[in-house]
Amino acid sequence: MASSKNRQRALARAKAERQIARRALAARKRRRWQAGGVAITTIAAVGLVGAWAGGAFDPEPRTPDVCAWTPNENDANVDLQDVGTPPTRGIPKSGFKTMTIELGKGTVEVEMDLSKVPCSAASLSYLAEKKFFNSTTCHRLVNGSFFALQCGDPKASGLGGPKYYSVDENLPVNAQSEASPSPQVADSATSATSATSATPTSTTAPASADPSASPSAVSNTYLYPRGTVAFSNNGPNTNGSQFYIFFKDSPDVPSEFSIIGTVVKGIEVVEGIGAVGVADKDGAAQTDGAPKEEVAVTTLTVGSVRKTAIAASASASVPATDPNAATPSADAVPSAPASS
């Protein structure tokens, strides 16, 4: 009997020892997990503090503006159209774009170098996406004091355009004076001020806005040779939607018109329009006015950015500026300005 009781006590003691051992093991495991948790929490906290100190939780930096668009506040001009404004950021500043102008008489392709005219190209791309130029008329042909077809006015009045201005870019360098640096970057302190001060106060463009209106321009230099495409304007930093396509070398044109690009295909189409001439007025021949035959812009589109330039066709090649060119004849002296 005593032996049975001793055996039971031994089994109970062994069981108790096993339970104590299991509890001790569980306690050690809990301590290890707790220690690991504390370490992980500490490491995470240190990491968060480091990330915060390093600016990881700062607001994402704002991409700087590339271009600035100045409102055209000439409310008296009813020919302006409100189509909003292009983006100011994310504008490519390298590569090339092709502007394709489908005229009723043929296709003209203009290459734009984005390293020279990022804002001009952005504005034209934006307006083209809005179909701003489609089904419009090239309202003016100049075939005397200089040689250009003027397009881009949806109203064909010489006063139409969007309700914003873009700043001057890629002004040609005169042989006897240097053009001002391009103010295309929006953080220029003078860009907005200049554009605002150039806002026309009437619906008639000032004389300085017309290539034919500046007899002080230096002769012997073709700042706008054949195949050049340039904005028309109402003064400094007032580019809208109207543009010139120069179909002959044009002397005595002042360095006041931002060169958009160069015709790489179809200059002969514009030359043909120039050959037909300007519509007569009161039975008298004219050298500045509406084309004799209506010139319609069916569509104007701007392609995507390319890395390489397109080689101009032989018919669209543009001669290099020649500072030693012969002095133009008296017939090339600028005429009185036309309203544009």
Description:
The protein has 340 residues and is of the alpha+beta class. The chain has two domains: 1-61; 70-332, Cyclophilin, CATH 2.40.100.10. It contains four helices and 14 strands. It has helices at residues 2-53, 118-129, 191-197, 267-276, and strands spanning 70-71, 80-81, 96-103, 106-113, 136-137, 140-143, 147-151, 161-162, 164-165, 228-231, 243-246, 259-265, 288-289, 296-302. The strands form three sheets. Strands 5-14-3-4-12-10-11-7-6-13 form a ten-stranded antiparallel sheet. Strands 1-9 form a two-stranded antiparallel sheet. A two-stranded parallel ribbon has the order 2-8. Strand 3 (96-103) and strand 4 form a beta hairpin. The longest helix is centred in the N-terminal third of the chain and has 52 residues, at 2-53. It is rod-shaped and about 145 Å long. The N and C termini lie far apart (129 Å). Residues 175-208, 214-220 and 317-340 have low confidence and may be disordered.
